[in-house]
Amino acid sequence: MSMRHRGAVIFCCSERLVPATPGPVAGADRSCTDLRQFYTSKGFTLSGVPQTEISGEHLRMCPQGPTCCTSTMEENLATLSGRETEGLIREAGRSLQAAFNALHRSFDTYFTELHSHSERSLQDTLSPLGPLYSQNTRLFGGLYTDLRQYYRGSALNLDETLSEFWSRLLERTFKFSAPTDVNLSEDYLECVAKQQTTLRPFGDIPRDMRTKVIRAFVTARSFVQGLIVSADVVRKVSQVSLSPECVKALMKLVYCPHCRGIASVKPCSSYCSNVMKGCLANQADLDPEWQNLIDTMIQVASSFSTDPSLDVVLSSIPAQIFEAIHFLKENMDTFTAKVYQICGSPGETGTESPTRHEQKGKSGFLTASEYKPSPTAGIRLEMVSNLSSKLREMRQYWTQLSVALCSKMAAAGANQNNCWNGITKSRYLPEVMGDGLANQINNPEVELDITKPDMTIRQQIMQLKIMSNRLKSALDGNDVDFQDASDDISGSGSG
């Protein structure tokens, strides 16, 4: 359902409703044929349904007066009006859920293609390393597997994962560069690996890559989680049952004209607004936190284009790894001397300078600054623009829901003097209430206890608040605990 569709809502003056007297009727012999046909079309039997109008003192929801409805019919139609309105609310919710799922699929496809492209470019970028790459493909591929699993929601600590990668890479590069007659035990290599953070053998590259990769993956994962949580909130709230007071008001709005013999007269739009604002008061209370979450998600979507953009960060991972190894090879003598001081001499002939592979392939080294990722800027801008515009359309969903429902039920704008006002065919005078539970204290159509909010909806408001905070943390590059959501994200195709 498009939230751009705005039903006609007419705000009137604040005079109280003046009860109108029913118009003259044709007497007790007025036929109920039309109502009988309508009633059976709704799936009810004709048992007990009057052939002609009866006196209406028994009516409890509709205005009393000559009618074709019995008490049983009134109850049946009230139940039906509630069921049908709940169906419309669920239908609107399913439409919004589908929109969130479509955004999820769109972003997931974009992100996984960037990730896969970066992984595929590993071989081209690192092949000049020769055996150091070919004999350690599992180490490099393992980094991408870990990053993919993190994005999917697994409980990996990204900082530790990256730190472990650089430690293992240092160990393999040092071992590969050592002379063949030097004995490097597992314990000795473990000591070498521990120097990754203290001696900074790869220069500033691991730290620079860590900052950018963590920010990229934390925001990507939290954005996906935001889409999932939003769709789930819509699903749960759309299934909340309408109150008995709301059902009575809906009966009066929708089906009392049928009992009254004026089935063709549609409800006044302001009248419909008051009924729906009363019925959906709790749902409208989602609005502040809902808008906050949508705004934060738009902010996160925009961050995917902010320098360094998501596509550039992912595309440059192979080149940064290559440049880091190049830096170490260039400074291997200095690093080795420091390692010997800390870890001791690895073997009896350890005085030989371990530069066996340094000269090989030195020409043709590629630096990260020279590495040009695939030209995906156009795709990125289109994707971010699409995400942002679609999210903006969803921003006022909970306050526009009553408008959307009344656009299906109520009279068009020009007919506000000849519409059903709850008593007769005339203008509706009471003012239209505001949105949310607190604003329903004087709602003339739906009786509500504003001190007793719906607890299911309150829980969903809290979920929105938690998700907004997670997204704001992600914007700052701070990892957040998604362990509770890993099951939801793993099936990242549809949310």
From TrEMBL:
Q: Which residues form the signal peptide?
A: none
Cellular compartments annotated: Cell membrane; Secreted, Extracellular space
List keywords of the entry alphabetically: Cell membrane, Disulfide bond, Glycoprotein, GPI-anchor, Heparan sulfate, Lipoprotein, Membrane, Proteoglycan, Secreted, Signal
Major location, coarse class? Answer: membrane
> Can the keyword Cytoplasm be found in this entry's annotation?
no
Q: What does this protein do?
A: Cell surface proteoglycan.
Q: What is this protein called?
A: Glypican-1
The scientific name of the source species is Tetraodon nigroviridis
